[in-house]
Amino acid sequence: MGTARPARRTGRAPIGRGADRAADRGADRAADREADRELVLTRTRLARPAVVPELQLHLADDMEHVWAGLQAELDDATLPPPFWAFAWLGGQAVARHVLDVPEQVAGRRVLDLAAGSGLCGLAALLAGAAEVTSVDVDPVAVTAARLNAEVNGLPLLVQRVDVLAQPPPAVDIVLAGDVFYDAAMAARVEPWLLAAHQAGVRVLVGDPGRHYLPRPALREVAAYDIPTTRELEGVLVRTTRVYAVGP
Length: 247
Description:
This is SAM-dependent methyltransferases. Keywords: Methyltransferase, Transferase. Pfam families: PrmA (PF06325). This protein has helices spanning 18-43, 63-73, 89-100, 119-126, 139-152, 183-198, 230-233; strands at 45-47, 57-59, 109-113, 131-136, 157-160, 173-177, 202-207, 218-227, 237-245. By secondary structure, it is an alpha/beta fold. The chain has two domains: 18-73, no CATH class; 87-245, Vaccinia Virus protein VP39 (Rossmann fold), CATH 3.40.50. A seven-stranded mixed β-sheet has the order 5-4-3-6-7-9-8, sandwiched between helices.
């Protein structure tokens, strides 16, 4: 779909004055951001998630097609899936729950973990959160979330940072939609979320029944039957639950 993404710049700037090198690095980062913006806009269309029609997101129609196309164009078979291009079930469930029970986030500081499209963070802002930060390690996800904030007219702060490598930040609520999708991610996320809970942060997790979900540490607070596709989930509707961490 659309034009190919320009290659991300990785080379060093020529040796010269410090100010010149800084300007070159700034130009490279600007070029990368523009390339990421083009990537998102040419591979998605504006659509409303099935159970969160209050928001519009830049979403793709076919996971495998977009993923394979990106790997081919960038000549990188190890490129991870474009999580930012889909409204995953866990994220939709958390977003719907936040909008259904807005007093959970109203006037509070919220962190949207592994944000992808930024859906959970945008829902929190729509529900009246005082400030929301969405974080992801993927620079394209950061761009996608910013574009989604722009189209919805919401002041979402989006950062590229691996917060799991740091202690939980000073927020009131952490939203985590569909973060237990594989063993490696689950091994990092679970202790971090437990640490956040022990620090007094309310943690909400959305999950459609992934294998690595740590059920003993969670308490169910809501459930939604969410339409999906056989390509993504193997069924047309899947019950997706929202959990609070801790008793």
